[in-house]
Design brief:
The chain is α+β, with helices and mostly antiparallel strands. Helices cover about 35% and strands about 15% of the residues. It binds glycine.
Length: about 575
């Protein structure tokens, strides 16, 4: 159980001393001799590139604690992958509504001049069934896939971090977990935004889960300590990433789920993160490297960017975010979401026609359908490849580059705020509610209002469709942009808008992030969502209504963390909508 002390005058958190980091690095890994999990292997010896190609390493991260972690890791000689893994574990402690070890995500990497993609998305438990969230009349039971034991899918984060760090990291596994363990043990000072998120979650979980037992102490100004989580992370540090799936942590998860949820020890033992080919495309002189299925985000982002480029004459002379501009973008978005609904799912269950969906000729033909005279909703937008085949978004993103020119773009999630609200007893971390990213009943929208057909129904072992879009842009083989955001189905429309601001409108990074963002998707039809940060009001609102749109406020439209590299200089930038931090390490 966590321990929190409300002390407005408490001393600031002291980062882990470098001397301690070095000592841990030199320490022999403690390898458990008993048990069936794979013992911790030392990081593979790799020869670093001979010299730095950038002036500095840099991060754009969602909180200041993870920026301090990155500083320690780079100071200890770690690379971008070491920093990314250390950031991910730190956020599991200091950003517990979305940072996690009980969820999953995607990592896009560029290491030693090559692109990689790691899928550590959650999977449906073996006992999951297609209709598990339907009542006896065949209708989805509200909330069932969002709150409590039955909403939980098999977590992938720890295996993902273990895979990435073993393959590409330079430091010892224990070294990259050390900052997170320190924050869990000694605590961190809670910011007001985290208190608000915890209060919000507490209301929705009241009487349904054990959430408050663990997270009631998240009060602004308090030092929040998580001793059980510290023990869990220490076991993972000592015994390796498979401890989570095969050791004591697995036993704690499965014994709590027994008789309540579907997740079993077998599901955990069988879980493996998967290396996949990233989706790549050429656009505007850049090579885009982004997320493949089971994310819809990479394909969606490329479709948006290419169709907008095809429509250059129509966009010519239009002011950014004028009603005419928004009207054209909304029509492009209708087409992207129609394809998403029809074709996108787990690539290990279905053939997802990625190449066809990002094909230049196909997208040019789809862009041809977009016209300034379109009356919103008048002609239903259908998927473009024909009938070939039978997800507030508490996700978080961080971007990392190191001075050797490597980059990591990582988005991971618990899905809803603090996931399912179920906290693993005696282990101290929240479990996801990623099962809601499946379609409970074909054609019925999830919490993001997006729907899918058969391609995203529940089946044992299947991965739910995601929108997470960790992306890297290359120019002449070198990293030029690292970008991503939380936001569910708003993820790739947000990244699209920031990239458009940067490259089509030539804005500096801070302005590109601060500019107004809107969202539109196929359903509900004719709806333009605006955000509190930059509401759509006055003349613009009147013009959009005049075109036939309904305007709808939404609580959240992303928290983009990005790093642009200009020449040899990394420029990190954090979205002003959140508490993110951009930091450069010389
Ligand atoms: N749970 C949000 C996503 O995967 O896109």
């Amino acid at each position: 159980m966590p321990d929190s002390t409300h002390d407005a005058h408490c001393a600031p958190f002291v980062p882990l001393p470098l001397a301690l980091i070095r000592r841990l690095g030199a320490a022999t890994l403690v390898v458990a001799l008993a048990g069936s999990f794979v013992p911790a292997a030392p990081a593979l010896a790799r020869t670093p590139p001979p010299k730095a190609v950038l002036d500095a390493s840099a991060v754009a991260v969602p909180d200041r604690y993870s920026a301090d972690t990155a500083q320690q890791i780079f100071a200890a000689g770690g690379n971008a992958v070491d920093a990314a893994v250390a950031i991910a574990f730190t956020l599991a402690v200091t950003y517990p509504d979305a940072g996690n070890i009980g969820g999953g995500g995607f990592m896009t990497l560029y290491v030693d001049g090559k692109p990689y993609f790691l899928d550590y998305r959650e999977r449906a438990p073996q006992q999951a069934t297609r209709d598990m969230y339907l009542d006896d009349k065949g209708n989805p039971v509200p909330g069932m896939s969002l709150v409590g034991f039955r909403a939980v899918a098999v977590p992938g984060t720890v295996d993902g971090m273990w895979e990435a760090q073993r393959r590409f990291g330079k430091l010892k596994w224990k070294q990259v977990l050390a900052p997170a363990i320190k924050y869990a043990t000694d605590g961190f000072v809670v910011e007001p935004w985290l208190q608000k998120r915890a209060e919000y979650a507490s209301k929705s979980f009241a009487g349904k889960t054990n959430f408050s037992v663990y997270f009631a102490g998240l009060k602004a100004g308090a030092t929040f300590r998580q001793p059980e989580l510290a023990q869990t992370l220490s076991r993972i540090a000592s015994d390796g990433g498979r401890e989570f799936y095969e050791g004591k942590t697995a036993d704690l998860i499965s014994s709590q789920m027994y008789g309540h949820g579907l997740l079993s020890k077998t599901d955990l033992v069988q879980y493996k993160a998967v290396w996949r080919q990233p989706v790549t495309a050429d656009w505007n002189g850049y090579r885009i490297v982004t997320a493949p299925p089971p994310s819809s985000g990479g394909v969606g982002l490329i479709q948006l960017l290419k169709m907008k480029a095809d429509l250059k004459p129509a966009f010519a002379g239009l002011d950014l975010n004028s009603s005419a501009y928004i009207h054209l973008v909304a029509q492009i978005e209708d087409r992207v979401f129609a394809d998403r609904q029809q074709y996108m799912g787990d690539p290990d269950s279905y053939h997802v026609p990625v190449d066809k969906l990002i094909d230049d000729a196909y997208l040019a033909q789809r862009a041809d359908e977009v016209t300034p005279d379109e009356v919103p909703g008048a002609t239903p937008v259908k998927p473009g490849l024909g009938d070939s085949m039978p997800e507030r978004a508490e996700t978080t993103h961080f971007s990392v580059v190191d001075k050797w020119g490597n980059a990591v773009s990582n988005t991971y999630t618990l899905n809803g705020p603090f996931g399912s609200g179920v906290v693993v007893d005696n282990a101290g971390f929240a479990l996801n509610d990623e099962m809601d990213d499946f379609v409970a009943k074909a054609g019925t929208p999830n919490q993001f209002g997006v729907t899918s057909g058969d391609v995203n129904t529940i089946a044992p072992g299947r991965r739910p469709l995601s929108s997470m879009t960790p992306t890297i842009l290359l120019k002449d083989g070198k990293v030029s942009l690292v970008i991503g955001t939380p936001g569910g189905s708003r993820i790739f429309t947000s990244i699209f808008q920031v990239m458009t601001n940067l490259y089509d409108f030539g804005m500096p990074p801070a302005d590109a992030l601060a500019a107004m963002r809107f969202h539109h998707q196929l359903l509900p039809p004719k709806t333009i969502y605006w955000e509190p940060y930059h509401p759509i009001t006055g003349e613009l609102a009147g013009q959009l209504k005049g075109l036939g749109y309904t305007l709808e406020g939404q609580k959240f439209n992303g928290d983009v963390q990005m790093i642009r590299v200009e020449g040899t200089t990394p420029e990190p930038a954090a979205d002003p909508r959140g508490a993110g931090v951009g930091r450069v390490f010389h």
